[in-house]
Structure of Pyruvate carboxylase:
Amino acid sequence: MAVEEIHAEMVSSVWKVLVSPGTEVAAGDTLVILESMKMEIPVLTERAGTIGELHVVEGEVLQEGDLIATVVPG
């Protein structure tokens, strides 16, 4: 299986980071919470695995398409 890359779907800011590299995650787990137009937007993983890389920090402003994290299949 390939590494899952998780990208921002819209311009937003990183409100809360819930994982770090090495964190085990299950399909559907929330990795980060973004904020856009006063709405909180959870960013989920689609498959189980381990967080390989985390490319964001709290307070960072993301553009559409920016890489948030990678999930290595477990």
Summary: The chain has one domain: 4-73. The mean pLDDT is 96. The chain has no helices and eight strands. The beta strands are 4-7, 12-17, 24-25, 30-36, 39-44, 49-54, 61-62, 67-73.
